[in-house]
Amino acid sequence: TDACLAAIDNADALNAFVHKTPDIAREQAAAADARLKTGDAPDLCGIPLGIKDLFCTKGVASQAASRILEGFRPEYESTVTTKLFEAGSVMLGKLNMDEFAMGSSNETSVYGNAVNPWRRGNDDAHLTPGGSSGGSAAAVAADLCLGATGTDTGGSIRQPAAFTGITGIKPTYGRCSRWGIVAFASSLDQAGPMAKDVRDAAIMLQAMCGHDPKDSTSADLPVPDFESMLTGDIKGKKIGIPKEYHMDGMPAEIDALWASGRDMLRDAGAEIVDISLPHTKYALPAYYVIAPAEASSNLARYDGVRYGHRAKLSQGDGITEMYENTRAEGFGEEVKRRVMVGTYVLSAGFYDAYYNRARKVRTLIKKDFEDAFHAGIDAILTPATPSAAFGLGEMVEADPVAMYLNDVFTVTVNLAGLPGVSVPAGLNGQGLPLGLQLIGRPWEEGDLLNTAYALE
Ligand code: GLN
């Protein structure tokens, strides 16, 4: 813990930790030491972690990287962080992210962007660590903590993991409780671990999941011992290669990465099978209707009355001006864009044309995966992202859709509620990490992690 706290203080340039909690960390570390002496030490006893700013942590600023939550200190602890602390882990502080987890580059944060510790060749230009869990990815990659929590609504664990050469898993929807995590799009949001390797991710995930009566969508299922399932034996497993993920204009290095992943799994004894997920091309449009729709509803609660920032009122202002000015000042550009899109697609005149249509597409995407699994496929291999980490500012200058396209390989998994893991799979010609994604059957994270383990 002391070594991590010192590393964090030396790494302010990465802008990964936005609230440091050294006092809490030292207190938890001392308690872990005492617990170790009693011999009753769980797996995470004394392990220093970073927590994404989207998680409510009792008495500690929890702002979802938004101005509108300025000054908000929750009276409660999220279920996931409670479980991590019960398992003995130590909180070093809160990690940077895109505002309300909306983004793929950590550039919508009120704290400014986090920085990727990796550089492109000899180029000094700063790269994005990805998003929205950019601070988590940068912190783990730069050895500021041993692991971090992330959340993934459309790829926010897997894409930053790929951009920084670490491992991240989004479990099946319902595996981790969403209680106490600031809501973005409730039917898609899941928490998960971001860690240095598959084994660490398995150990963290073990502690994070489990049934929680406080989240009605949390699954009442036993949690297997994920770590004990990491045997590396994947003989006879059927790995699907979906042809629709061969995108036009995909960089050659991504094709090469995918081919090397196929070879590694085949060499480990798996059978490689070409499959089709025919509705893949509708996933991004459906996601960018459903996620904003749910966000516009979830974010209605930030009205200047209950939490955080409130605009100063002028003489004659009433409650309407208070709401309007608070939201105008408190939300950033991207959040406002999502609220407007979401409100539009949910409005009476357009509900059927957009929101209901997107929900039907979502069902078809889910069925594509079910068909593949019914046909005996155990896991599906794809690239995690369509490129390596891009430069800060590069995508923001393009139109917002260019940024949205970055999620092309990840959003299908959230729409279908499936578990997906991103594992580092080598470096590109410029020395930047690339990630492969494996998608698994619902509730079979242990099996999925074991396949990922074979790729490591
Ligand atoms: N980049 C996607 C978005 O902006 C996904 C974000 C996430 O998974 N939280 O919505």
Automatic annotation (TrEMBL):
Q: One MF term from GO for this chain? A: glutaminyl-tRNA synthase (glutamine-hydrolyzing) activity
- Give the GO cellular component terms, alphabetically: glutamyl-tRNA(Gln) amidotransferase complex
Amidase domain residues are 1-449
- Top-level division of the source organism's lineage: Bacteria
Cited PROSITE patterns: AMIDASES
Could you list this entry's UniProt keywords, alphabetically sorted: ATP-binding, Ligase, Nucleotide-binding, Protein biosynthesis, Transferase
What Pfam families does the database record attribute to this sequence? Amidase
The record's listing under Gene3D superfamilies reads: Amidase signature (AS) domain
GO process terms (BP) = translation
Please list the reactions this protein catalyses. L-glutamyl-tRNA(Gln) + L-glutamine + ATP + H2O = L-glutaminyl-tRNA(Gln) + L-glutamate + ADP + phosphate + H(+)
What is stated as this protein's family in its record?
A: Belongs to the amidase family. GatA subfamily.
What quaternary structure, including any partners, is listed in this protein's UniProt entry? Heterotrimer of A, B and C subunits.
Q: What does this protein do?
A: Allows the formation of correctly charged Gln-tRNA(Gln) through the transamidation of misacylated Glu-tRNA(Gln) in organisms which lack glutaminyl-tRNA synthetase. The reaction takes place in the presence of glutamine and ATP through an activated gamma-phospho-Glu-tRNA(Gln).
Full protein name: Glutamyl-tRNA(Gln) amidotransferase subunit A
Q: Taxonomic lineage per UniProt?
A: Bacteria, Pseudomonadati, Pseudomonadota, Alphaproteobacteria, Rhodobacterales
